[in-house]
Amino acid sequence: MYDYAIRFEQDGSAPGVAVFCRDLPELNSYGDDRGHAIREALDGIESALSIYVDERRAIPPASAPQEGEHVVHLPAVTVAKIALWNAMMERGMRKADLCRLLDVRQAQGDRLVDFLHTSKMDQLESALAALGKRLSLSVEAA
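RE: above sequence
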């Protein structure tokens, strides 16, 4: 649901590879070569997701990859944060509302939807449960 497809563009006049994502037009990433660009794409995606939070917009699901695109599989904690943020947007909640609901300090609540900060899964599961959601994981071949 949130495994975003990225595409690469190489400018003949400059070294390196630029990374773009149809589903996240805010994504702006770059690498020295294709392999480096793939490794940098996760940071770029998480930075793009932060823009959605800053602008109080729901995060879009990923669409099916097209030919020539590479799929970036997000860490489980990132997917849980997306689910939490989108559940908040469905209810018109702000971060302060989440803090009151969970009875946590502002800094702790902010981190739960900060894609550039690591959170513990149990905290995210508790926050999702408070919004009537349950996290479900699956394991598949890599």
